[in-house]
Description:
Elements: E1 14-18, H1 24-37, E2 41-45, H2 52-61, E3 69-75, H3 80-86, E4 92-97, H4 105-112, E5 121-122, H5 127-141, H6 146-161
Parallel strand pairs: 1-2, 1-3, 3-4, 4-5
The structure holds 5-O-phosphono-beta-D-ribofuranose.
The site of 5-O-phosphono-beta-D-ribofuranose (RP5) has 9 residues, from strand 3.
GO molecular function: 5-(carboxyamino)imidazole ribonucleotide mutase activity
Catalytic activity: 5-carboxyamino-1-(5-phospho-D-ribosyl)imidazole + H(+) = 5-amino-1-(5-phospho-D-ribosyl)imidazole-4-carboxylate
Function: Catalyzes the conversion of N5-carboxyaminoimidazole ribonucleotide (N5-CAIR) to 4-carboxy-5-aminoimidazole ribonucleotide (CAIR).
Amino acid sequence: MTAPPDPSSDRPLVGVIMGSQSDWSTLCHAWEVLGTLGVPAERRIVSAHRTPQRLVEYATQAKERGLRVIIAGAGGAAHLPGMVAAMTTVPVLGVPVESRALSGLDSLLSIVQMPGGVPVGTLAIGKAGAINAALLAAAILAPDLPEVEAALVAWREAQTRAVAEIPLDEA
Length: 171
Ligand code: RP5
């Protein structure tokens, strides 16, 4: 199987950020989908508590740098998406990373329970959430980017084709 195209771009529209290197094994699924859909993106480790200054710079410069969506993944006390959302009007999609201690329920509640006023669009825990964050980011961009709209439609069609009508016996 061939690897999906790398979405890395010097003019990214989507920023994929995560609190730790350990989150990459989850966020890489968002990265792959962005590559498949041809969405220009960048990826960064931005920790709310270990690199707070990097967080402030990333969030406050996001809009002027041309980012249209930020996908932010974190685990445990997952304050990264909410902190970023507090400092930019760029839409933030939060991906709760599956934690060792509480299987990601802590991450989910930390991200989803934003007080009214500072929204974070929160996805499912783990790989499914990362994939859906990328699909949602593409859908947000699609009205302005016909090639992304076409890629999104093709992705859905391929998904539909992959579902067999009759279940096979399992060994
Ligand atoms: C959070 O703490 C990160 O988002 C990560 O999910 C979690 C654990 O980080 P490491 O201890 O693996 O760096 O900040």
